[in-house]
Amino acid sequence: MQLLRRGDSGPAVAEIRAKLEQFGLLGPEPAENAGHFDREVEQAVRAFQQQRGLITDGIVGSATYRALREAGWRLGDRMLALLISTPMSGDDVIALQEQLLELGYDTGRPTGVFDEQTERGLRAFQRDYCDVPDGVCGPATLRALLQLNARRVKGGRPHLLREQELLRQAGPRLRGKRIVVDPGHGGRDHGVTVAGVTEADLMWDLARRLEGRMAATGMEALLTRRENTCPTEAERAAFANRAGANLVLSLHVDANRSMHAQGLATFHFGNGSGNTSTVGEALAGYIHRELTSRTALLDLGTQARTWEMLRLTRMPAVRVEIGYLTNLGDRRRLLDPVFRDVVAEGILVGVKRLYLQGKDDQPTGTFTFSDVLARELAGETRIR
């Protein structure tokens, strides 16, 4: 869709204003500002973006527009079912997923997308409490949910406990772990491009370096694209889900109009309302600390986002923004193959730290790839 920002006007802006009024973020529209994207609308958009884990730029693009539409649905507004070509999504789907989880039916992390796992959880609930287990959330299913949830003590975020238990069961060794590595952009989509240097090429090179190191430790590393292809974020997430990956690592660089913008940031799933991948957050932290300790990149912290690659994956996913290609210092580092080796090593060690879960661990920045490889090949679970 066309980007909408301050100064724009028309029916699309009027729709945006109406949504923001509905959510209590904007007052009634003055007659003189009918359909106008003014300063108040921009501030309301920023507030909404912050609430939903989006980039808070005050501009309505495809991601913000999707979130505005999804936020308008309440459970019971419509029938919910699995649609393969265009999956249903919205806050009503999140509510359904959370209620089923509260009752002990596994729908995975509440993503707001009605997928196969949501349907399985719904059918299991219907087999226990409804006459027809058709996988459609209609009036009869809603009545059963309402009656059961009214009698239950709620809370506890069961999906977070499942995610943490899966991590515990996986054990500390890297061997046998299946990791999806996602080099950003690709094909005709070069991503950030500065002075002939492209994000797609740099991240492809980094992904191959990381893939090689992972394979050497006995891990199975799968790339989401080939050198000359560019799947959508949803397609990359679907690939990871089909592969049954343990983790997803998405690799990117950033850009800014200011040449002074620089640094490293890592991202995990989180929607601003308490729904967060705690294992993804932990992995983002491990990788971030390893990279900031090994490189001269400015520390921009770890943050929660609802980007599709983080939201649609059924396993913990982390996106790493490795510097700004528009910054001279960061660009020089990224162009250095030795620097990319350091980054690949830091990411691998961050993954190892996640599986160690704090046991037999060592100060940040002290492990090397050779250390990890030697212990893995020797069948040891302890890094001294």
Write up what this structure looks like:
The protein has 384 residues and is an alpha/beta fold. The chain has 3 domains: 11-71, PGBD-like superfamily/PGBD (Muramoyl-pentapeptide Carboxypeptidase, domain 1, Orthogonal Bundle); 91-155, Muramoyl-pentapeptide Carboxypeptidase, domain 1; 173-377, Zn-dependent exopeptidases (Aminopeptidase, 3-Layer(aba) Sandwich), CATH 3.40.630.40. It contains 14 helices and 8 strands. Strands 4-1-5-8-6-7 form a 6-stranded mixed beta sheet, with helices on both faces. Strands 2-3 form a two-stranded antiparallel ribbon. Strand 2 and strand 3 form a beta hairpin. Helix 8 (199-216) crosses helix 13 (337-356) and helix 10 (278-294) crosses helix 13.
Write the layout of secondary structure elements.
Layout: H1 11-22, H2 39-51, H3 62-71, H4 91-102, H5 116-129, H6 139-149, H7 158-170, E1 178-183, E2 193-194, E3 197-198, H8 199-216, E4 220-223, H9 233-243, E5 247-254, E6 264-269, H10 278-294, E7 299-305, H11 308-311, E8 317-324, H12 328-334, H13 337-356, H14 369-377
Parallel strand pairs: 1-4, 1-5, 5-8, 6-7
Antiparallel strand pairs: 2-3, 6-8
Helix pairs in contact: 8-13, 10-13
In short:
This protein is of the alpha/beta class.
Beta-strand percent range = 5-15%
Mean of residue pLDDT values: 90
Strand order of the largest sheet: 4-1-5-8-6-7
At the fold tier of CATH, the topology name of the largest domain is Aminopeptidase
- Give the CATH superfamily of the largest domain: Zn-dependent exopeptidases
How many helix segments?
14
What is the global morphology? Answer: globular
What integer value in Å does the Rg equal? 22 Å
